[in-house]
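Handoff note, outgoing to incoming analyst
You'll be picking up this chain. Sequence as last confirmed:
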Amino acid sequence: MMGWSTGVLSDLVFFQRGFDITKNEQRPGPYPVVSSSGAKATTQNSRCKGLEW
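Most recent structure output, in case you need it:
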């Protein structure tokens, strides 16, 4: 495919386990709380800064 290349995922990205956010810490907000089963809640505070594209 034009514009695409193949590679090993671990050479392209770094995965790290995130932060535990308990039910008591979750407040409805713009940031999803994502677990191994998907996004199940939101929270008001982000624990890290995202990349800007």
